[in-house]
Design a protein that fits this description.
By secondary structure, the chain is α+β, with helices and mostly antiparallel strands. It folds into two domains: 2-55, no CATH class; 61-172, ATP-grasp fold, B domain (D-amino Acid Aminotransferase, Chain A, domain 1). The chain contains five helices and nine strands. The strands form two sheets. Strands 4, 5, 6, 7, 8 and 9 form a six-stranded antiparallel sheet that branches. A hairpin with a 3-residue loop joins strand 4 (61-72) and strand 5 (76-83). The protein is globular, with a radius of gyration of 17 Å.
């Protein structure tokens, strides 16, 4: 299982110690909740620690990607694809495209990532990744009038070649 603090004021739970992975028992989950409350209180005592997400962990992860869309003042929406997961800030393995972008441009950006090159992904897997990114882009474009930011991290590439989004952050404007 995975336990994660749910709090709109905390965008990056990992930095505050608010995510625990690989939990195997109810006792592990209880201990994780206690540890998260303690860690978050040290990080920022004003944060509420009363809501948690407990979910099944994806155990057949082959790689973790980041797919983000953010409004850039004067430019519109920008797409970021890169290496994801808990080490996203330190990896600096990403590519940025202005939207709208073609499938070919997105495929090329994915292909140039160090993570993708290291894994030597085949066409079927790249097609699965492209499909997942394209779905996120479609959502962003449909909500472009109000979308401020959308981060899917991680988008997990499974051993089967399928993808699954296990965490997302979305910010919308009120008008």
């Amino acid at each position: 299982m995975v336990v994660k603090l749910l709090n709109n004021e905390l965008a990056h739970e990992n930095r505050a110690g608010a995510v625990y992975l690989n939990l195997r028992s109810p006792e592990d989950v209880e201990a994780a909740v206690d540890a998260i409350r303690h860690s978050v209180a040290l990080f920022d005592p004003s944060l509420d620690t009363n809501q948690f997400l407990i979910e099944t962990m994806v155990e057949d992860a082959r790689a973790e990607f980041l797919v983000g869309v953010k409004r850039q003042i004067g430019l519109g929406l920008a797409l970021v694809v890169g290496s994801g997961g808990t080490e996203v800030d330190s990896l600096r393995d990403y590519r940025t495209l202005l939207l709208p972008s073609s499938d070919q441009q997105i495929h090329e950006a994915l292909s140039k990532l160090a993570l993708t090159q290291r894994m030597n992904l085949k066409d079927a897997t790249m097609s699965s990744m492209l499909s997942a990114v394209r779905s996120i882009v479609r959502f962003a474009e449909q909500h472009s009038a109000r979308l401020v930011e959308l981060d899917v991290n991680p988008l997990i590439l499974r051993e089967s070649g399928d993808t699954v989004a296990v965490d997302a952050l979305m910010r919308m404007s009120s008008s």
